[in-house]
Amino acid sequence: MKFTKDSVNDCLEEITYGDEKADNRRIHSLKLLLIFIVLIGGLGAFSFGLGALIGIIDNAPDIDNLSFSPKGYATTTYDTKGNLTATLIQEGSNREAVTYEEIPEQLINAFVAIEDQRFWQHNGIDLRSISRAVKGVITGDSSAGGGSTLTQQLIKNNVFSGGNEKGFDLYERKFQEWYIALMLENRPGADKKETKKQIITDYLNTINLGNNTLGVKVAAERYFGKDVKDLDLEECTVLASITKNPSRLNPLTHPEDNQERRLQVLKNMCEQGYISEDEKKAASGTGVYDEIKQNDESLSSDPDIYSYFTDALIAQCIEVFQDKLDMTQAEARNLLYSGGLKIMTTQDPDLQAIVDSEVNDPDNYDTAKYSFKWRCSIKRANGILEHFSEKDVENYFKNVKHENYQGLFRTTEAAESYVNEFKGTIFSEDDKDEIIAETFDTTLQPQASVVLMDQHTKEVRAITGGRGDKKYSLTINRATGTYRQPGSAFKVISTFAPAIEENGATLASTYYDCEFQLGDKKFRNWWKSGNYFGYSSIRDGIEFSMNIVAVRCMFETVTPFEGVEFSRQLGISSLTDEDMNVATALGGITKGVSNLELTNAYASIADGGMYGEPKLFTVVYDHDGKVLIDLNEDEKTRVMKETTAFLLTDAMRGVIEPHTKWASGYTVNNTSSRCKLDNMVAAGKSGTTTKNVDIWFVGYTPYYTMGIWAGCDDNQSLNDSETGVYNGGTSFHKDIWRKIMNRVDEGLEPVSEFDVPEGIVQVEVCRKSGLLPKQACYSDYRSGSNAVYTEYFDIDNVPTEVCDHHRSGGGIIVPEADRGKYTDDSGRGETSTEPAETDTSITDTPQETTAANYDGGSSVIVAPGVDVNNNQIGPGGQ
Asked: 445 to each of 363, 365, 409, 542, how far by Cα in Å?
């Protein structure tokens, strides 16, 4: 190898610097690699970010399927004269819509000035506002405003339900919000100004303005007691100052904070040219908050408590929505309270006022007592909680002190004294017990409920579910929500109606009134004299409310099963299979009935046998004004012949028209002559339960049907002569019925007779058999009368057989099973069980009776309401 100077230097250089050069080359290569990776990574990140953004946009709601209007609106109800009767709301739905034209210009300017000053210029998002908001956050300038436009706020509230997301979901929602805002404001072919108007309108209908008020219309009424279109500048700026923080900026609870924000609103409006400096100064005072306080006090003195009618309406609406709109109960309730519906009710304000005034008039009651509800929770020294109620008070005075405790007191103070006495027995001697919660509330007794309805339309005109102050919404409604024993008011529904309609009985059909027993159950009449009348008709059973006639009719003609089923056809929904026994004939049923259903059942009779569901509303409009439900389209159902309905009506007219049923040595008056009206014919039936716990009267005129119930909430007796208890007597409800119906009839054309329908005839029959009379029937004189009278019949069910109860030689045939039982018939020695002898006083053999061929010796109708001599006939009966 040849060594030269250059080769040696090259060799030494390689030994000295070779590794350094290699490192430099490696570093250079690494740098190139890193740059490549960064470029690839950046490109990938960009691609990923772009893909993610595209995915976020693709997942955004389709703008063509979106509604930007708020979803929760208050429902309003109206009476028959168009008066607003109630506003139904729930959390998130106390809102009423307002149009752009109804919104004051300064209200729009106030919101734009403080929330989105470039609203009329930007395209949905505003980069200037975003920059200003970021700067404000950095510098702590609270006046800088937010970054979201009004359009974005509207989308957040009505598309994204308020936007409470966190983390990635927050960013996703924000990007979608921006995208939808741009799409909404830049739709091809859309008028930009009109789009802006719709956005600001939807926004002002949406926003939360404190005190459970949503939207400016409800807020204007809540804070200022006026329509939104009448707001002045000061009031507009109050509302515009709330929305940033509805709790802290509430003008009722935090007027100072609202005022501070309001001054900023005025400042912005002035700077942006909406108002002058003088207008700003004039509107800067604090007097507007005094106005707000005064309006709040007026609202507090008249709390928005639903009426009994509205309570019942709410329940019916939910049921109808479920049925007709195929909704769950939750869906129906949500629609009712937040669907912005307009409900046209059947309530007549004038008739409702009459009902309320009479039911609440203390002069209509000769006693006033109070029951109470008491709840008390006590924390013992050892930390154990114990709970007490009025039941514990009752137990103490009945079972410890052995007092005749009824739970009714002449004053509220007396009631409270009993509670205090009991409380003295439940505290420990060391006095370390602590009352942590206690409520005490009294209720006026006896109570009453009324249902007044138009039997022809089935529309309920008035409801009251109790007397005294109504303290809460949706509380006990004694007209619709409680079930009480109906007593004799049920006889017509369960027994006499199906006997005539389905079993061939007539008003003249007779049953033997005497001591009667089925199994171990003994029955007697309501009067306590122990007297019985012997053969008595269905008409007698109705007019004098004869228990034995009703029970024997159920037992011998109808069946308990048939009685229950017929009652169900008349709308009595509370009956059970356990009610298929003869006690149902007397209204002794398991659950009881509601006033609404019992009154509606009688309304079916009053309407000629036509049944329809009772209506508390007719039409429901949705939020857009379209008909959602129309109950006027519902058809009625025939549940009994028109002739049957008339026969029952005529007999129930005899309940009211004063007259007496008499026998040897005793008499019984018809039950409800005090219900006779001044200028209107009426029919009805009373009902009273054991020991006078429940008292009823349900009756009707040609115009209206009304049912009244009275009693004590805890089933105390109204009048018990055996124990000397007197809590109001047993007839005051009939006076109330008469007073209400007389007032309701004012201005209506007087009617003295119920219309007699086609197919009704009058025939003379024997009072004891209900059959055609013979000479012996005419000879059965009692106090100058005889056993023959004229009765109404369905022309297809006129008796054709001759009386088989009177013997030609005198006396009455008594049923063999009832021989030896004292009645007016048997008491006169008329106990023969021989077959009736042939009576030749009727010369012609009876034949099937029709209006065309029946002209025998008895009076008969040949045309509706006219006898054989073309004389107008009046009511049948005694």
From this structure: 14, 10, 9, 30
Determine the Cα angle at 578 with ends 503 and 475, to 5°: 110
Cα 250 to Cα 208: distance, rounded to the nearest angstrom = 11
pLDDT at 846 over 50: no
CA quadruple 304, 308, 313, 316: dihedral sign:
positive
Percentage of the chain modeled with pLDDT above 90: 59
Specify whether the CB–CB gap between 95 and 215 falls below 8 A.
Answer: yes
Could you give the count of Cα atoms lying within 13 Å of 68 in the half-sphere of its Cβ?
A: 26
Q: Is 280 helix (H, G, I), strand (E, B) or coil?
A: helix
- Euclidean distance between CA atoms 134 and 137, whole angstroms: 5
Encoded tokens for 422: 């009991």
pLDDT at 618 over 90: yes
Q: State the DSSP H helix or E strand holding residue 618, giving kind and residue range, or none if neither.
A: strand 617-621
In this prediction, residue 862 has a pLDDT band, given cuts at 50, 70 and 90, of very low
Closest CA to 264 of 70, 120, 76, 111: 111
Q: Could you report the per-residue pLDDT of 237-290, keeping only the tens digit for each?
A: 999 999 999 999 999 999 999 999 999 999 999 999 999 999 999 999 999 999
Q: What is the residue whose two structure tokens read 């800088």?
A: 144
9-30: buried (b, 16+ CB within 10 Å) or exposed (e) per residue?
Answer: eeeeeeeeeeeeeeeeeeeeee
The distance of Cα 81 from the centroid of its chain, to the nearest Å, equals 20
Task: List Cα–Cα distances, 798 to 499, 764, 857, 871, in angstroms.
Answer: 15, 10, 14, 20
Strand partners of residue 751? 680
CB 36 within 8 Å of CB 49: no
The Cα–Cα gap between 378 and 607 comes to 57
Write the CA distances from 468 to 181, 310, 311, integer angstroms: 56, 17, 16
CA distance 265 to 109: 10
Burial of 284 (0-12, 13-18, 19+ CB in 10 A): middle
For the chain, the C-alpha Rg in angstroms (whole number) is: 42
Distance CA 622, CA 380 (A): 55
- Strand 705-711 to 694-700 pairing: antiparallel
CA distance linking residue 94 with residue 154, whole number of Å: 17
Question: How far apart are alpha carbons 587 and 523 in whole angstroms?
Answer: 13
Which run of H or E residues covers position 766? strand 760-766
Between 388-392, 524-528, 595-599, 612-616, the lowest mean confidence (pLDDT) is in 524-528
Cβ neighbourhood burial of 8 (10 Å; 0-12, 13-18, 19+): exposed
Q: Whole-prediction pTM value?
A: 0.79
- The count of other CB atoms within 10 Å of the CB of residue 755 is 13
pLDDT for 295-347, tens place per residue?
Answer: 888 776 555 789 999 999 999 999 999 999 999 998 999 899 989 999 999 99
Asked whether 870 and 858 are in contact (CB, 8 A), the reply is: no
Provide the pLDDT for residue 3.
Answer: 53
* Count, residues in the chain: 878
